[in-house]
Amino acid sequence: MFESLQDRLGSIFSGLTGRGALSDKDVAAALREIRRALIEADVALEVVRDFTDRVREKAVGVDVVKSVKPGQMVVKIVHDELVEMLGSEGETIDLNAPSPVVIMMVGLQGSGKTTTSAKIAKRLTGRDKKKVLMASLDTRRPAAQEQLRQLGEQVDVVTLPIIEGQSPSDIAKRAVQAGKLGGYDVVILDTAGRTHIDEPLMIEMADIRKHADPHEILLVADSLTGQDAVNLAKSFDERVGITGLVLTRMDGDGRGGAALSMRAVTGKPIKLIGTGERMDEMEEFHPKRIADRILGMGDIVSLVEKAAENIDQEKAAQMAKKMQEGKFDMNDLADQLHQMKKMGGMGGIMGMMPGMGKMKDQMAAAGMDDSIFNRQLAIIGSMTKHERARPDILKHSRKKRIAAGSGTNAAEINKLLKMHRQMADMMKSMKGKKGGGMMGKMMGGLAGKMGMGGGMPGGMGAGMPDLSSMSPKEIENLQKQAEQMGLGGGGMPKLPGLGGPKLPGLGGGGLPGLPKKK
After folding, report:
1. Is 108 annotated as a binding residue?
2. Residue 390 pLDDT > 60, yes or no?
3. Contact, 357 vs 364, CB < 8 A?
């Protein structure tokens, strides 16, 4: 979503951070470029003006111009103002109300309200252990109620039975009543939309609000619609009164202006963002983490949280046991490839790593993308059970059969076998060792063999805490640790291979491992 803006700001800041001192003229020139970059990213003009005025006010002070690293100070000021623009503190859906908590979903047709309703329901049932009831109030769009029912079955959430001929307000009243009688914690009302804002839509939304008395009214907006999404938010807030925003398709190739503008224009927090089509691809909106991503500082905490959610703890325990015995076969390698795919693949992981934007592009240009995972898994899948357990028996005739079955060639099979041998040797060298860092070292080794650096956060780098035993407080402290190491806040130091001096502890173009858990 923010790649073009990230590239533009990155080039602006690289010119600033390379200088020993900055003049007022340097700052003014940089601000002109920042203004242009934000406008090209489709940020609202009034928001751009306020943003650059606030940055200029702080950036032309004596403390900045005479700073030892004035360029990095300007980066920090821009970072802090981005966080302020997006909303200093991230806010989540408020469930602090008498049960059932009624959540009303509003927005235009095609913005993703129905799918988002199901994603939120899955999140509340799975993560927060809430009993959720969903109800479709969309009586206009053909099969809209049936769509929500099918999504409910998919995410294992109960939906209100469909009664033909009922009005949206009647359905809302029935849903709230069913929520009370059924002992539900949350009732989600999926309302109808239109292709554009009109008076009948607003009257219907106001009527539903009057009868359902929702605790949260969430506006679902497509982040690819740019300034139209900002105008939409203003209109809904003025007529219906929204409590928060949900932005969908944040994984798209839009310029990100809507996300940067909506909070500043409406004053309403962005509570959730849709990051993909799958039902589990919904994240809380953290202003600081988004600002870090925009400025190329990465998002270590989100990566760790994603790893914690996706790593199978039972398999991790089995792997740790095998590692203590010094064993590692093709089945184990396939498990780790699947884990990395679940975390978003190569692009998703590298997008959250500080300073990895350029390397991500270089790897894509070299053909090192997520298709590598699929080819390697296809190779392993074409092996027999015996061959996966004993890859050393693979000779020419077997490789020829595997290549034909997987649609690959002998060279790719040999590369995979070489990677496996190197990792198996590493397992043998760790035989008998204990501690939660073993899994991290193993996955760090896998990342290195895949060309992704010598150390990765989120359970993939040596020295990272064992994710299966991390407490929420420890995850919360990771960002502070990252900032102390220079991975956020005050500007990202340059990584090896991307220009600039090498940093201690950086091996093979990777990141330093975060401090071990005490």
Report:
1. yes
2. yes
3. no
